[in-house]
């Protein structure tokens, strides 16, 4: 199934599995893939590197406008500190405006699978396929905890759950592009699904929406 030129929006909260899912869909469909969350993570990291507060609009906007592809390849864009910084800069209208054209240019060039939190609602509201990938907070926290342990980051699962719930509240409660499913998004709950089952379900939803 080749869908060159098609934009597929994959949104959802942290650790719902949308990144793994979007990568596999992109490979299956022959489309480029973009993890838009990396743009905000890299912006937040640049602000932290400068010794500034990620909630500082001026510092955050400056960091967003100076991003380069090298920033997206940094090895320190994951983890609780990066999560908090990304969520903080993402709430700043100027940051979102600075990164919006970047995302749209990427998707419009050849089509793409993009994952994030506002792809279907703001970045590509006319995308023919919109998926909203979610899971229970407990399931997502357990996945994130295992990821952190695998990277050698020692932490308590209860702490991860608390931080994830705080991130959810901040993402859903911000004034600009709050996290929510688009009105025409297809929802996929991965709480009880492993990566393979989630991929099969997502592929079926894509086929359903495109009439393939």
UniProtKB/TrEMBL annotation:
Cytidylate kinase domain span: 8-196
NCBIfam families the UniProt entry points to: cmk
Assigned EC number: 2.7.4.25
Catalytic activity field: CMP + ATP = CDP + ADP; dCMP + ATP = dCDP + ADP
Top enzyme category: transferase
The family this protein is said to belong to: Belongs to the cytidylate kinase family. Type 1 subfamily.
Residues that span the membrane, as ranges: none
Record-given protein name: Cytidylate kinase
Location relative to the cell: Cytoplasm
Chain sites annotated for binding ATP: 12-20
InterPro entries linked: Cytidylate_kin, Cytidylate_kinase_dom, P-loop_NTPase
Alphabetically ordered keywords of this record: ATP-binding, Cytoplasm, Kinase, Nucleotide-binding, Transferase
Top-level lineage group: Bacteria
GO molecular function: ATP binding; kinase activity
Species in which this protein is naturally found: Teichococcus globiformis
Gene field: cmk
Chief site of localization: cytoplasm
Disordered as annotated region, ranges: 51-73
């Amino acid at each position: 199934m080749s869908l060159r030129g098609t934009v597929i929006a994959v949104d959802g909260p942290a650790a719902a599995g949308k990144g793994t899912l979007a990568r596999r869909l992109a490979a299956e469909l022959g489309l480029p893939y973009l993890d838009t969350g990396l743009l905000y993570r890299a912006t937040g990291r640049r602000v932290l590197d400068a010794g500034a507060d990620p909630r500082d609009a001026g510092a955050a906007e400056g960091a967003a406008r100076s991003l380069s592809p090298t920033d997206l390849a940094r090895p320190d864009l994951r983890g609780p500190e990066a999560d908090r910084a990304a969520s903080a800069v993402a709430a700043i209208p100027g940051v979102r405006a600075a990164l919006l054209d970047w995302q749209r240019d990427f998707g419009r060039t050849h089509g793409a699978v993009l994952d994030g939190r506002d792809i279907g609602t703001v970045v590509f509201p006319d995308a023919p396929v919109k998926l909203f990938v979610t899971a229970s907070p407990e399931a997502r926290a357990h996945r994130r905890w295992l990821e952190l342990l695998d990277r050698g980051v020692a932490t308590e699962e209860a702490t991860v759950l608390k931080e994830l719930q705080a991130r959810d509240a901040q993402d859903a409660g911000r004034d600009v592009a709050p996290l929510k499913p688009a009105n025409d998004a297809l929802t996929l709950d991965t709480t009880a699904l492993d990566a393979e089952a989630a991929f099969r379900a997502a592929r079926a939803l894509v086929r359903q929406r495109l009439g393939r």
